[in-house]
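Sync notes, pocket subgroup
Present: LS, DG
LS reminded everyone that the earlier model was apo-only. Rerun requested with magnesium ion included. Inputs:
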Amino acid sequence: MALHLGAQYILEHNVGISDAVLLHPLTEEAFIENIKKRFSHEQIYTYIGTVVVSVNPYKKLPLYTPEVIEEYRSRNIYELPPHIYAISDEAYRSMRDRNLDQCIIISGESGAGKTEASKVIMQYVAQVSGKGREIDRVKEQLLQSNPVLEAFGNAKTLRNDNSSRFGKYMDIEFDFKGDPIGGVITNYLLEKSRVASQIPGERNFHIFYQLLAGADPTFLETLKLSPKPENYGFLNRSGCIKVDAIDDAKDFNMVKTGMEVIGFYRTEITEVFQLVASVLKLGNVEFSHRSNADGTDGCDISNTGEIAEVAQLLGCLEQNLTNALTQRTVEVKRDKVKTDFSVAGAVYARDALCKAIYSRLFSWLVQRINDSIKVKTEQTRKVMGVLDIYGFEVFQTNRYEQFIINYCNEKLQQIFIELTLKEEQEEYIREGIEWIHVDYFNNAVICDLIEKNNVGILALLDEQCLLPGNVTDKTFLEKLNQTCKDHPHFESRTLKKNQSDRTLPHDAFRLKHYAGNVTYKVDGFIDKNNDLLYRDLSQAMYACRHNLMKKLFPEGNPSQKSLKRPPTAGSQFKASVQELMKNLLSKNPNYIRCIKPNDDKQSGTLDLEIVKHQVRYLGLMENIRVKRAGYAYRQIYAQFLYRYKMLADETWPSWHGDVVEGVKLILANQKIQQDEIAFGKSKLFIRNPKTLFDLEETRRERMHFLATLIQKVWKGHVKREHFLLMKRSQVVISSRFRGFYGQKQYKKKKAATLLLQCCTRRWKARKLLAELKHAKRMEWAARVIHKYYLGWKVRKNYKPKFRRIAGPKVARFMVVALKRKFLLNVRDKLPSLSPVDNKWPSSPKMYKSASDQLQVMHHKWRCRKYRRKLSEAQKYTLREKATASDIFKDKKVIYPESVPRPFKGDYLNIRGDMKWKKIHSLTNDINLVFADLVHKVNRANGKIVQQLLVVSSQAFLVIDHRTMTLKYRIPIEFIEKISLSPFQDKLAVFHMKKPENGDRFAKKGDFIIGNEHIIEIVTKSSLCVKNKTNTMPEISISPQCSGQFGSSAVQVSFQQGAKGLEPGIPGVKVTRKKHLMLISEP
Ligand SMILES: Nc1ncnc2c1ncn2[C@@H]1O[C@H](COP(=O)(O)OP(=O)(O)O)[C@@H](O)[C@H]1O
Ligand SMILES: [Mg+2]
C-alpha cells in the first residue's frame, strides 16, 4: 500500500507501542516510559483502545497536511498509527453510516492542547465531507468561527499563550450524506474578571491588543484610541503586552475577515469594535476623592475628556455616564435616593461595567455566529459535537473562576469514568459475562461536594448570596466550614484536621480534586456569584443610542420594572453543565485525553512527574486495564444481525428465526473462534478489534458484491422497461406511420383516378365535338354545294334574261343604297346649331358637291334659325354690324378693333338730358341714333374744334356742347357720299348733295369730323340715309377724295408717316393749302 509522506513518516518511525492496551508489563512506569519514548520521536498520539492520548509537542509537526488526512480517510482505526484523524474518521463514519450522533470530548489541563485538537478535528471533517458551493460556505463559516471566538475569548496565561477563557461546545450538523449544513455553538462562562485585571505575566483578551496593533490609524482615530497598549490601564498593569509567538496585527486581520466570512454586517463589525474601544477607554477613567457636606465620601472623574469620548462612541450624554459611574440610586423605604460612590466604589462600578459589557458582547458574538451558521432548512440532521472546555487549573491564588472551571472538569472526568470504567464494568456484570473488577477512583464524591442540592458548595454560596443583611465572603467560608467539615475532600484552616497546615490561608478553603488539591481564596466569591450590575449603570447603557449596547442591556429598559433577582452565576453554570452532560450522554462518546509534557511550554522536554500526575488523575491506567480485560466491541444482537446478515446465506436477505441463533450462524459462517466472542444477555461481545475489522471488511466486500448484484438486477430491469417502452412506442409509431402512409397513397391514387377520368371524358367530348363539327361542316358544305348548284342551275337557265332585265335593276338599287347610306351618315353626324361651328361630316368623293351644298344649306338654315331667335333690337344691331362689315371689312385699318365693341350710340347719355329734350321737341328728332363729342375740322384752316354731334334718324345735329345750343341741323337725306382713308385716322368726310334751290346747308359744303367711334357714326348714318332715301350713300375708302367746301372744290389727301404726331385724334394734323387739304397722320 502506497503511503503518503506524512503517514509513511509515522509508520516508519513507529516506536514503542501504539496501543497501550498491548503494553507488557502493564505498569504505570511502563506506560509513561512508552509515552516518553514515543514523544521523544515526535509520536505524540497513543491509543488506549479507541481513546487517543495526546501529548502537547509545543512545536509544529508534519502531521496535519491534507495528504495525511487522505491517508486516514475511510481506514480502520488500527491500520495506521494513532492520530486524532483516526478517531475523527471513526466518529464521522459512524455518524454518517450508522446514524449515530457523536461527540468528541477533549479533556486535559490548561495548555495540554485541547483547543488545537478540536481544530484538528474540524479540519479533518471539513476535508473529508462533501464539496459544493453551499457546503463550502458552511465549512468556511464553521472554520472561521474559531479565530473570531479565540480573539475575544482567549488570552495569554502563564500556562498557555492561547488559553481559552471560556468553554465551548460545538455541534456540527450534517445532512444524510454526511455533508455539513450548519452548527450550533454553546459557550460556557467567560472569565470576565480578566477584562479589568490580570495576574502578572498574563494578558487581557487578545482582541484588545489585536485591535490596537492591527486596525488602520484612521479606524483607530474614529474609535478614539491610540495604538499604544501601554496607554491603557486594563492592558498595562500586568506587565505583559507582547507575546513572541503571537502576531497581533496579523491576527486582527484574520478576525476581521473571519467576521466578514461568517456574515457580520459592516455596521455590526464597527459596533463591536466600538464596544471594545469603550471598554478600554472606560478602564482609563480615574476618580478623585471629594468630601461631601454631609460628611459622606464622594468622588469626581478626574479625566473627563476620556468620559466625553466614551459618551461620543456610545451615543449617550456625558453627564448620564458620569452620574452612573459616580452615584447610585438606593431605595430607602420606597424612596429613591442618590448616594455618591467613594473612589473605591466608583472603580468597582467601573470595572463591573466593563466586565459586563465585555462578557455580554462575547455572548452576543456567539449568538450572532450561531445565527449565521444555523441550519436553515427543515431536514433530519446528524450531529457531531466537539467539546473543548477550559482545562483543569491550579494557580498561586485560585478564585471563583478556577473553582467553576475545575468543577466543570470534575464533571467531565465523571462522564469519562461513567462511560469507560464504571458503565463498562457494570455492563459485563449485567450481561452475565465473567469479570474481575478493576478498581478506580470515582470522583462522584467531589462532584457531590460541589453541586449537591442544599449542601453542595454552590448551593451554600447561593444561599449566602440570597441572605439579607451583612453577608461577606467570610460568612460564606464559615458556612462552608460548618457544613462540609466532615467531607474528606474539603479542607479549611479552621477545621481541626488542618489547623496546623500553614500552606492553607485563613481566608481560603481547599478542595481535593481528582486532579489535585486546589486552594481557593473566598475573596470575591459572593460578589462574582451574585454577578449584579448597578441598575443605574444598566439604565445608562440602555439609554445609549448605540444599537448593540442597547441590545446588551435589556434590563436597563426603565419600562421593565421586574426586579426579580436573576439566577446566580454559579447556578446558571451548574444548569448549563448539567445540560451539557445530558447532551453528551445522549451521543456516542469519543475521547481525546490531552497531556501537558511540562509547565514551561517547552518542546522536546517531558517532565515525568508532571506527566505521571496527569496520567493518574486522568485514570488512564484503569482505562487500560478495563480495556485489556474487556471486549473491544459490543452490540445488541438484533443490531449485529441487521448489520452482518449478509455474511451468511441463511440470514440473507432476512432471518425469521431466533436472533441469537442468527448471530451464531453468522459467526460460524465467518469461522470466528470461540474465545474471541462472548454472548451476553442482550449483547454480543467481541474481544479484539481486529475481529470486528475482519467482519467489517468481509461485510464491505459482501456489500460490494450485493451492490453489484442489485445494480445488475436493477440495470436489467431498467433496460428491460426501457426496451418494452421502446417496443410499445415503436408499434405506436409504425401504426401511425402506416396509417399516414396509406392515407397519402390513397389520396394520390384518388387524384390520379380523377385525372384519368377527366382526361378520358375530355378526349371523348373532343371526339364527339369533332364528329359533330364534321357533320355540321358536311351539312354546310352540302348546303353550299346545293346552293351553288342551284345558283348554277338558275344561272344556266336564266343567264340570257338576267343580262337584259336584272342588271340595270341591280345597278339602280346599288346607287340608291349608296345615296341612302351617305344621307343617313350626314343626318347622323350633323354638326351643332352654333353658326360658328364649321365641322361637317366627311363624305365619299362622288358626293362631294352634294355634301358642300348640303353644308351651305344647313349653315343657312341654322343661321336663320339663329336669327329667328333674335329680338328686333338685336337684329338691328346685327344689321348695323353687318353693314359695318360690308363697308369696312378689309378696307380700313381700324375696322377690326371696332368689331368686338358694341355700338352704344348715346355715349353721353343725353336722352334724359332736359336741354336735349328741349332741342328735339323743336326739331322732332326724337329717334336718337348716336351722340358724342366729335372733333370737327375747320374747313377753312384745318383747325380742329370739339362739338357735340347727335345723329337721329332724320338729321345730323351739331350742338355747342358747352351751352347745349343747336348750331345747325343737316337732314339726313342730304348726305350723298362718305369718304374715309384706309389708314389709322378716325376721320370721315361727309359729302353733301349739290345745292338745289339754295339750300342753306348744302351751301356750306362737305364737313370733316373725327371721333373714336367713326366706324359706328359712318355705319349708322349711312343706314339712316338708306332708310330715308332707300338708297345707300356712296362710301369711298381711299387716300384721296375731292370735297366741296362752300364754293371751292378741294382735294383732300391723307398722308401716312408724318413724324412727331401723337396717334389718333387729334393725332392728325390738318393743313389747308388752297385747293388741297392735307391730313397727315403718324
Ligand atoms: N498538536 C500540536 N502541535 C503543535 N503544537 C501544539 C499542539 N497542541 C498544542 N500545541 C501548542 O500548545 C499550545 C496550547 O494548546 P491549546 O490547545 O491552546 O491548549 P488548551 O486548549 O488545552 O489550553 C498551543 O498554542 C500550541 O502552541
Ligand atoms: Mg483551550
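DG: The two ends are 148 Å apart (CA to CA).
LS: The longest helix spans residues 689-804.
Action: DG to write up.
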